[in-house]
C-alpha cells in the first residue's frame, strides 16, 4: 500500500509541474486519469514505466533486396521470430524504390525472408521467387541496436528449407489491419482506447492493434484522404472532417496509432502502409489531413515517403496540418523526466532530433501545403499549443495558404468556418 501512495505522489507532483509549464487542462485531465488508474490498479504506473522502457529499447534491422529473377513486382520482406522450432511470421514491409527495407524490432533474435509479389496481392504464393537470409540465419538485435544486413538476392532458383522447417502466420495486428474496412462507430474507436494508446502503447498494440483503416471498400475512382489524429486522440476526433468529405470524390483512410510511441515509428509505419495499399490496389493519388501531433507525424511521413518513393512526388495532391506543435512544446521536456514518461514527449521537446530533422527539411513546392492554426481570445495559444509553435516562419513560407481560427485546440475541428474552408480547399484538387 505504501508503494501505491508513493506512485500517487509522483503522479500528482508531475501533474503540477506539467500544468505550470504550459500543458494546460488537457494534460491535467490525462494526469487525473493516471491517478485514477493508480488508485484502482495499483501497478498501473509501473506498467507505464515498463512499457516506456521497452519501447525505448527497440532496435532496428536494415537491409536491401536485389531481384535477379525474371519476374517483376513489388518486393516484400517478411520478419520472423522462432519459438520451439517454429518460425513465426510477425511483420512484413515492401521495399522502397532502391530495394531497401527497415524493421523496428524488440531485442532478440529475428529472421528475414523476401519474395517478389508477382500478382501484387500482398502475400506469398507458390511460384513467386523468394529467398531467406543466411541458412536461414538468426539475426541478434540488442536493445537500441541498429543491425545492417548484407544484400539478400532473389533468383528464379528457390532455396531449400532445412528438413522439418515449420512456420506460422502470426502477423502483428497493425500489419494485418492495413486496408481493413471498419465503421467509425466501432467500439475500438473510443476514448478509453485513445488513453490506453498514449499511456500503455504496448497493451494498445496487443489489444486494439491500430492500423491504416478504410471506412468503406476501396473504390479506384475516388481519391484517398488519410486522416492522422494527435496525442491521446483517435478517429472520433476527426468525425466532422470525415462527414464533410464529398464521398463522390473522396474515400477516407484513418491512421489509428498508439500516440505514446516515438513519432518516427509512426511515420515509418505510415510510409509502409501507404506503399502496401498502393501496390495492392494500383492507386497513387493521396491527400493527408492531420491534427495536432499528427502534423509532426505527417511532415515526417512526407519526407520519408518521397525519399523512398521519389517518383511518386506528383501523387501527393494536398497536405493540411491543423493546430500542430510544429515547433515543439517546451513543457514536454519536463515530461521526459516524469516518473511515468511517455516516449512521444522526447520528440515534442523543441530541441529534439526529430523536430530538427523534419523542420530543417524543405517542403517540395509542387505539393500544396495548407497550414491551419487556432487561438483563443486573450491568449497566445489555442489552449494547448502556443501560436509560435503552430506557425513557425519557415512553415508559413512553405504553405500556399495560412488560415487562423478563433477557437480551441479541438474546437476548430467542428468549427463551421473551418469545415467550409476545408470543403473549398478540397474542391481545388484536380
Number of strands: 17
**Shape designation:** globular
Strand content: 15-25%
CATH C-level name of the largest domain:
Alpha Beta
CATH homologous superfamily identity of the largest domain: Alpha/Beta hydrolase fold, catalytic domain
Judged by helices, strands and strand pairing, the structural class is alpha/beta
- Helix % is 25-40%
* Average of the residue pLDDT scores: 89
Number of helices: 15
Low-confidence stretches: 1-26, 35-43
Description:
This protein has 430 residues and is α/β, with parallel strands linked by helices. The chain has three domains: 2-42; 59-171, Carboxypeptidase-like, regulatory domain (Immunoglobulin-like); 174-427, Rossmann fold, CATH 3.40.50.1820. Helices cover 35% and strands 23% of the residues. It is built from 15 helices and 17 strands. It has helices at 2-20, 24-41, 44-56, 173-176, 191-199, 201-207, 239-244, 263-281, 294-308, 332-336, 344-348, 353-360, 387-390, 393-398, 416-427, and strands spanning 59-67, 75-83, 86-94, 100-105, 108-116, 130-132, 139-141, 146-148, 152-154, 166-169, 211-214, 223-228, 250-256, 286-291, 316-322, 369-375, 401-406. The strands form three sheets. Strands 11-13-12-14-15-16-17 form a seven-stranded mixed sheet, sandwiched between helices. Strands 2, 3, 5, 6, 7 and 10 form a six-stranded mixed sheet that branches. Strands 1, 4, 8 and 9 form a four-stranded mixed sheet that branches. Helix 8 (263-281) crosses helix 9 (294-308) and helix 9 packs across helix 12. Residues 1-26 and 35-43 have low confidence and may be disordered.
Amino acid at each position: 500500500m505504501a508503494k501505491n501512495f508513493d506512485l500517487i505522489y509522483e503522479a500528482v507532483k508531475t501533474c503540477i509541474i506539467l500544468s505550470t509549464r504550459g500543458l494546460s487542462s488537457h494534460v491535467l485531465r490525462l494526469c487525473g486519469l493516471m491517478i485514477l488508474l493508480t488508485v484502482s490498479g495499483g501497478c498501473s504506473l509501473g506498467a507505464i514505466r515498463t512499457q516506456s522502457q521497452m519501447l525505448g529499447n527497440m532496435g532496428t534491422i536494415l537491409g536491401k533486396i536485389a531481384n535477379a529473377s525474371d519476374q517483376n513486382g513489388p518486393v516484400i520482406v517478411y520478419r520472423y521470430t522462432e519459438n520451439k522450432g517454429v518460425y513465426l511470421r510477425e511483420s512484413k514491409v515492401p521495399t522502397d524504390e532502391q530495394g531497401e527495407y527497415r524493421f523496428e524490432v524488440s531485442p532478440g533474435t529475428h529472421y528475414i525472408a523476401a519474395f517478389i509479389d508477382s500478382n501484387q496481392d500482398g502475400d506469398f504464393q507458390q511460384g513467386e521467387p523468394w529467398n531467406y537470409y543466411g541458412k536461414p540465419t538468426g539475426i541478434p538485435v540488442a536493445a537500441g541496436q541498429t543491425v545492417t544486413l548484407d544484400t539478400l538476392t532473389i533468383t528464379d532458383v528457390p532455396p531449400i528449407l532445412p528438413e522439418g522447417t515449420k512456420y506460422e502466420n502470426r502477423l502483428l495486428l497493425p500489419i494485418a489491419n492495413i486496408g481493413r474496412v471498419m465503421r467509425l462507430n466501432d467500439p475500438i474507436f473510443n476514448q478509453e482506447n485513445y488513453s490506453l494508446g498514449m499511456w500503455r502503447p504496448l497493451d494498445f498494440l496487443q489489444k486494439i492493434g491500430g492500423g491504416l483503416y478504410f471506412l468503406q471498400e476501396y473504390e479506384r475512382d475516388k481519391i484517398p484522404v488519410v486522416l492522422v489524429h494527435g496525442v491521446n486522440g483517435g478517429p472520433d476526433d476527426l468525425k466532422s472532417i470525415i462527414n464533410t468529405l464529398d464521398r463522390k470524390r473522396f474515400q477516407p483512410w484513418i491512421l489509428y496509432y498508439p500516440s505514446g510511441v516515438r513519432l518516427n515509428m509512426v511515420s515509418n509505419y505510415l510510409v509502409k502502409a501507404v506503399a502496401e495499399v498502393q501496390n495492392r490496389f494500383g492507386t497513387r493519388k493521396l491527400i493527408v489531413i492531420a491534427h495536432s501531433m499528427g502534423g509532426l507525424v505527417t511532415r515526417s511521413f512526407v519526407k520519408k515517403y518521397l525519399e523512398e518513393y521519389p517518383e511518386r512526388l506528383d501523387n501527393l495532391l494536398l497536405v493540411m496540418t491543423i493546430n500542430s506543435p510544429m515547433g515543439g512544446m517546451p513543457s514536454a521536456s519536463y515530461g521526459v523526466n516524469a516518473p511515468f514518461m511517455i516516449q512521444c514527449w522526447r520528440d515534442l521537446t523543441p530541441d529534439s532530433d526529430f523536430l530538427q530533422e523534419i523542420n530543417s527539411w524543405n517542403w517540395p513546392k509542387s505539393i500544396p501545403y495548407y497550414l491551419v492554426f487556432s487561438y483563443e481570445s486573450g491568449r497566445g495559444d489555442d489552449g494547448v499549443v502556443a501560436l509560435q509553435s503552430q506557425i513557425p516562419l519557415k512553415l508559413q513560407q512553405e504553405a500556399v495558404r495560412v488560415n487562423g481560427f478563433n477557437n480551441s485546440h479541438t474546437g476548430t475541428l467542428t468549427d463551421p468556418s473551418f469545415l467550409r474552408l476545408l470543403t473549398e480547399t478540397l474542391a481545388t484538387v484536380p
